[in-house]
């Protein structure tokens, strides 16, 4: 009896694995293989940029950065 249950469970797992593999391979080769990837990449980029701004503000570097940019612009324009 236990052997029959184990055999049925193994067969069920094999079917589930085959279905999963077919679904994944279809998504990798299909027309919509990158559907939603742009949003995830955009969200990741926004999180990274927000982290950089938070770090700059937390360390108090905003005045130094704006001063350095102002000096660079003045050097290029020739006003100082």
What are the defining features of this structure?
single chain, 80 residues, mainly alpha, 2 domains
Summarize the structure.
Helix content is 84%, strand content 0%. With 80 residues, the chain is mostly helical.
What is the number of helical segments per DSSP (H or I, 4+ residues)?
Answer: 3
Count of domain modules: 2
Topology, number of strands: 0
Shape: elongated
For the residues shown, what is the average pLDDT? Answer: 80
What value does the Rg take, in angstroms? Answer: 28 Å
Which sheet architecture does the biggest sheet show? none
SSE arrangement, N to C: HHH
Q: Termini, distance in Å? A: 92 Å
Helix content: over 70%
Give an overview in words:
The protein is built from three helices and no strands. It is mainly α and 80 residues long. It folds into two domains: 1-32; 36-80, no CATH class. The mean pLDDT is 80.
